[in-house]
Design goal:
Helix content is 17%, strand content 37%. By secondary structure, the protein is of the alpha+beta class. Among the domains are: 70 residues, no CATH class; 107 residues, no CATH class.
Length: 405
Amino acid sequence: MRRAQLGEPVHPPKPEKPEKAEKLEKAEKLEKAEKLENAVTRGTAPGAGASEKSRSTRKGVIVAGAVAVLVIGTAITWATTREESRDDVVRRPLATATVTKGGLAVETVMPGTLEFGGLKTVSASLPGVVTRLAKIGAKVGRGGRLYSVNDRPVSLLYGTLPAWRAFKAGMTPGRDVEQLESNLRRLGYFGGTVDRTFTYLTSVAVRKWQASLGQKDATSLDLGAVAFAPGPVRVAGHKVAVGARVGAGTAVLATSALAKTVKVDVKVSDQGLARKGQPVTITLPDGKTVKGKVTAAGAPVERTRGTGKTIVIPTTVTISDQKPAGRFERASVTVTFRGAQSRDALSVPVEALVAMSEDTFAVEVPDGRGGVRRLPVTTGLFAAGRVQISGAGVAEGLEVVVADS
């Protein structure tokens, strides 16, 4: 061992830290970390600020079956590094979103069936043999032929009152006569005053019309020679074949309206959506969407669903534009009903909500120093993964913290 020379500075060796002291220091750090972890779990971490407390008290908000879960499994590591050096702490950037202003609506999606509406059966009144049937899919308008029996045409006329007797001179006045004369005038054969009396002019008009159909000297119409419908119809199907013998009451044709409609079974719990005039959006099998509205809602009926039964409200939806649905004869579609809505709602993602208690909520706003401050809010509509909020300090463009995904 070399001795120090005169005038040479002496540097005594650094005393080594006793093993017991080193263990004690480590134990103290571990104890601090455990205390801090417990404090974070309780939401009272010293020095952690609102940011750490908020993450400990953020509760899962369940909306439409989605659950947001906050995990705080890194508390011990964070606490240890924070004790050693603040400069060594790596702060994780907060995930944020902004408060937006705009329309928000609750939407309910239901299955439906696209098909031609107004299905009806046309039955024979004239006895004989069917000699002609309009083609399936054919459009039949005023004065058009639906079918023929013994080569006598059965024609379509417009009206809501069904034919219930023969039309001929001397018949008692009635609304059905007025309905017939109105059609004959529209067809260009009747020049008299449309009223409820079958006159000479009515019989002349009948003769002219029937002559155009190949029936000579026919000044009257037997029961079953005409069928009334509110408007033009589409031949949906044949109930009998050409050559079949029919009698009074025999089903001959099935007809439908020219336009397709959507049939939806609305749950009783959603019956508020089945209001006449209620706007809807229909998604077709090819992914295209068309607008529609509810035009009819029937009385509640029982439907069998699997092994059980349920009560539904049969609802009819009309389509505003038939062209996109033209290629589908019959198809399954989805119908979106819009419920409660707000035009100028301030909203945030649902993940931004912090549950303060069972029925009170807040949002967290970055404070610019790595922490957050809380703003109590009142919630409104929940729709499409967003929630309407209001409260002091809430404004469009405000940046709020959202839970990590």
